[in-house]
Amino acid sequence: MTAEQSPESVVRARWCAVLGVEEALPEDGFFELGGHSLLAIELLQQVEADLEVEIPADVLFLDGTLAALLDAARTATAQKATAQ
To answer: Above 70 in pLDDT, residue 3?
Structure first.
């Protein structure tokens, strides 16, 4: 992740790419937009690789909104920064 790539921009870009949508709103639901379990894992793996963090899969499977994934990415990134 570069300085220009905030966790929010990474998550939004990956979300849109995986789901094939142009815009993403925080209240958007992953599964309501056509996502399925394999795409959810793909999205999580891409975000984790880009941000070099771990995000629990239940973020998508239990809540499923972009807002929840954004929050989880921010939290994981902050925890990574404080651990260094």
So the answer is: no
